[in-house]
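residues and backbone:
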Amino acid sequence: MRVVMFGYQTWGHRTLQALLDSDHEVVLAVTHPKSDHVYEKIWDDSVADLAEKHGVPVLLRNRPDDPELLAALKDAEPDLIVANNWRTVLPPEVFDLPPHGTLNIHDSLLPAYAGFSPLIWALINGEREVGVTAHRMNAELDAGDVLLQRAVPVGAADTVADLFHRTVDLIGPVVNESLDLIASGRAQWIPQDRSRASFFHKRSLEDSRIDWTWPAEAIERLVRAQCDPYPNAFTHHRGQRIRIVESAVSEGRYGGTPGRIFIREGDGIVIVAGTEARNGRLRGLVVKRVRTEDGAEHAATDYFRTMGGYLTGRP
């Protein structure tokens, strides 16, 4: 088949590489210009550089609706478009142009976690597995019929970086198997159960702010979901922002006001957490390592030399 690829960052790069390694012909790659958005500078392998290295024509676009792009797509005469991590809406005149339509590769187990940053949201929410879905694009966000899915488990100590590497390794096999099914006429498209759909927005720095009224278990997952190289989960101590680099849920149960710097437990410092903390029935968050605004990292037991005081959402 003749294939046009729409994609961006490492997800798009892996998809293009899979297409280049396949028996199909990549006739055009469309990608976004480089961005200064904090989340778009992470996992930023260049689709444009890979395409140019292999002699594939490249178009850089923020939006896919200009006459020049539409003309280039028609001239390319694709049998299929394959998209992964394209950041703006593709119009019907694009996604319905090829005979086989557009195959979108999305890093969640649709219909759950449609939209943006699905791995981060899934980890925060305590999901037990994550994965990759290949589906046919339609006019709704990540809502088209599913061709295939692959899942991996989420371990108790997994970070979002662990899940990224585990799921990005699924892209090549998913793309290759999907194209084989489509080219051979064996593709079976399964409609999504829209009653199970959920949608998530792009993340920003505000989404990394710790709310100490959350249960400790949820805050601990937030810390793992915002591990390096992502912007770390953060809070404020004595008016200064600090990032929580490593944490755990306490063994003991602690009562008091959420955010209170309470007591040493093991190799960390317990912070009271949860709206029901006052009854003394909840676990606290054991903060183990913190990073200050100058980039210096400290063991929490060294940083918090005395107990008392509070960690707060704002200065």
Remarks:
- The radius of gyration is 23 Å.
- The helical segments are 9-21, 47-53, 67-76, 92-95, 118-124, 160-184, 216-225, 300-303.
